[in-house]
Amino acid sequence: MRAIKKNRYLYLLALPGILYFVIFKYFPMWGIVLSFQNYSPYTGLWGSEWVGLDHFRRFFSNPDFWLLFRNTMAINLLNLTFFFPLPIVLSLMLNELRSEMYKRVLQSILYLPHFLSWVIIFSLTFLMFSQSEGIVNKLLIAWGMEPYPFLTDAGIFWGMLTGQSIWKEAGWGTILFLAAIAGVDLQQYEAAKIDGAGRFQQMWHITLPAIRSVIVILFILRLGDIMEVGFEQVFLMYNGAVSNVAEVFDTYVYRVGIQQGQFSYSTAAGLFKSLVGLVMVVAANRLAKRFGEEGIY
Amino acid sequence: MKGSVGDRTFQAVNGLLLALIALVTIFPIYYVVVVSFTAPSEYLRKDLVLFPEQWSLESYRYLLSSAAFPRALGVSAFLAVVGTACSLVITSSLAYALSRKRMEGRRFILLMILFTILFSPGIIPNYILIRELHLLNSLWAVILVSLTTGWFVILMKGFFDSIPESLDEAAAIDGCNDISTFFRIVLPLSMPAIAAFGLFFAVSYWNQYFNAMLYLNAPDKWPIQVLLQNMLVDASGSALASETMRQPPPSETLKMAAVVIAIVPIMLVYPFLQKHFAKGAMVGSVKG
User: Fold this and answer.
1) In chain B, what is the straight-line distance between the N-terminal and C-terminal CA atoms, in Å?
2) Residue A198 sits in the same domain as residue A108
3) Which domain holds residue B185?
4) Which CATH number belongs to the domain containing residue B86 in this structure?
5) Where exactly are the transmembrane stretches of this chain (chain B) (predicted)?
């Protein structure tokens, strides 16, 4: 108590921030109870009827559940397969450049999309690929081909998302790898050269091992986020023609909860996703730490 | 020294491939900029514009003379300026207090903050909270829900950790309490870091889409990102509903001009962003 009194101004300084976390981060956690109720805005949290696990049962037996699950997994697995290796390849390529100037110019260009909002990314996608206005279709027509409905073809929707992620983030993703590569002792390359190792052998035997632990840790952390799909990205790309492949947990909660007013049911759906996400993230962090320690020894 | 034929070929191919990748990255932005400055008549006449014969500001003039577009820019600027100021004050004061070892209970508070990073109750409970606070349709809702996150507090605390406690002891002898020490001595000392955080907050407020869409129903409250999204999907152009009597330019050039305007502020701060965040991301990686 005395310590608190002595440092009261310090606590006063922290107070607004603590209150913020209590009100805006912890108070909503209490809202979780509404997934066990039949919440109605008129009766509020206190007066609503308790229904136990009904909403969860309804959600798991709903065919929508498997759809959401499949879409989430598909989008993330595509990302892991096609997006994840690219920053590694890109940073290896950038690392081989002789001219610092050229490298810096390229980096400036490649990092830029990271700072653009998803609305901008969506806008650019639309202006490139839409059937009526997109330049890609204009080119196809100019070359005597049929225009293609890139944005409304459910068959390529996931691919379009992966492409967007690559365009936006692959460049920025190189930062961590380039930092790890910068830590490699240049003498190792000299020694390898004397031993007659070529470019690719140097890359394979020196550069890649140097960033292996970063790769492993990022990969594990990425696995921990397997329940997360960028809400804004998917939500913006969503349209009636692709709804079957585009609905993921967050968009579903938004549509069913906010737009249709089924607060309790959608809270249950959101809670399921958050809980699984929490378990995955914690497990991934554990695993990453174990690998991190191995990396040290 | 500069190596064999194979080596030089490798260099050339690698450099070329990277140039190609950079081209793919920059092309959509180039295209949008170029078309936004193309005279409407030329755009309508040609099938494909890759470089305009006749430059024109018509699309920009039309956008900026509408009521909705400048208003949305104003809303976004408000969010970016006021939001950033609030975010900085609340994040830095909490982070600083948590960085002082004499603050009892700080481990517990940090743990509670860490937990909010790992677990979020989801969209609906947040929405209900904002509704109960009667903040629906208020710009404050957007600011309040994104005021700070556990990440920012922990990152900034990491920065304040490097400021020795002997500094506040010295200040205390000079008659400063913790609050005046923080605002008069610690903050001015930390300006470069605070500015970097501020830049990041400002960009994230400018880029806000989801929260604004969720909490703001009235079109006159829309920030630029929400308006832009509505302009894009809405072929009739009614999102702008310009009162000017002018013949509107083609909707495509308008959309492109709108995209360019929304990108400009990011481009203006980009050199600083790149400098700070390339560094920041590396610090994070070493620590994490």
Assistant:
1) 40
2) yes
3) 67-241
4) 1.10.3720.10
5) 12-33, 72-96, 108-128, 140-160, 181-206, 254-273
Which residue range forms the structural domain that includes residue A41? 1-52
- What pLDDT score does B235 carry? 63
CA atoms of B161 and B262, how far apart (whole Å): 37
pLDDT tens by residue, B18-74? 999 999 999 999 999 999 999 988 888 887 888 888 899 999 999 999 999 999 999
Number of domains into which chain B is organized:
1
Model-wide pTM > 0.90:
yes
Q: Tens of pLDDT along A89-141?
A: 999 999 999 899 999 999 999 999 999 999 999 999 999 999 888 899 999 99
- In degrees and rounded to multiples of 5, residue B144 shows phi and psi of -65, -40
Q: In A146-207, where does DSSP find H-type helix?
A: 157-169, 174-182, 186-194, 199-202
| Any domain includes B33 | no
Distance of CA A132 to the CA centre of its chain: 30
- Best of B107, B111, B124 to disrupt the A interface (most A CBs within 10 Å) is B124
Residue with tokens 């400009």: B264
Q: How far is A183 from chain B, CA to nearest CA, in Å?
A: 11
Considering only residues 29 to 58 of chain A, which have any Cβ-Cβ distance to chain B shorter than 8 Å? 29-32, 34, 41
Q: Are residues A284 and A173 in the same domain?
A: yes
Provide the ipTM.
0.91
Q: Which residues in chain B (22-61) have CB-CB distances under 8 A to chain A?
A: 22, 24-26, 28-29, 31-32, 47-48
Contacts of A79 (CB under 8 A, 6+ apart): A162, A165, A222
Task: Give the Cβ contact number of residue A293 at 10 Å.
Answer: 9
Q: Are strands A49-50 and A37-38 parallel, antiparallel or unpaired?
A: antiparallel
Token pair of B160, please?
Answer: 């304040």
Please answer whether residues A82 and A164 qualify as being in contact, where contact means their C-beta atoms are separated by less than 8 angstroms: no
Q: Which secondary structure element, helix H or strand E, spans residue A49, and what is its range?
A: strand A49-50
Q: Could you tell me the two tokens for A29?
A: 């956690």
Whole-number Cα distances in Å, A176 to A290, B150, B203: 19, 22, 21
Cα distances (angstroms) measured from residue A38 to each of A35, A259, A280, B133: 8, 17, 29, 21
Q: Are A249 and A235 in contact (CB under 8 A)?
A: no
Helix (H, G, I), strand (E, B) or coil at A37: strand
